[in-house]
Write a structure and sequence with these properties.
Elements lengths: L12 H21 L2 H9 L2 H16 L5 H11 L6 H11 L3
Helix pairs in contact: 1-3, 2-3
């Protein structure tokens, strides 16, 4: 039984780099949430410490300088991923051909 070659739509360098970066961010998020400073912020309910922790979490989850509201606005406008006319044309006209 011969394996099919990987689909080029899912193996381009930017995507594989993005997946690796996301995995690193998830590891960092896990460390942050289980850190002593996170535990202390939860135990003491110190709002300034909790806000600082939330800012760090948002930077890992959404990107530095991107708020949850920014992400929500993007989703409402573009869906899960943004797109351009050029990429849609490429997908339909070049990739979608048999």
């Amino acid at each position: 039984h011969q394996k099919n070659p990987p689909d080029p739509l899912f193996t381009y360098p930017q995507l594989t780099r993005g997946i690796k970066n996301r995995q690193n961010d998830e590891t960092r998020l896990h460390r942050l949430l289980s850190s002593p400073k996170a535990m202390e912020a939860r135990e003491t309910q110190d709002q300034s410490k909790m806000n600082a922790l939330l800012e760090e979490m948002n930077a890992l989850v959404y990107g530095k300088g991107v708020s949850p509201q920014d992400r929500e606005d993007f989703l409402m406008r573009f869906g899960c991923t943004g797109h351009t006319s050029d990429i849609l044309d490429y997908l339909v006209n070049d990739v979608g051909k048999d």
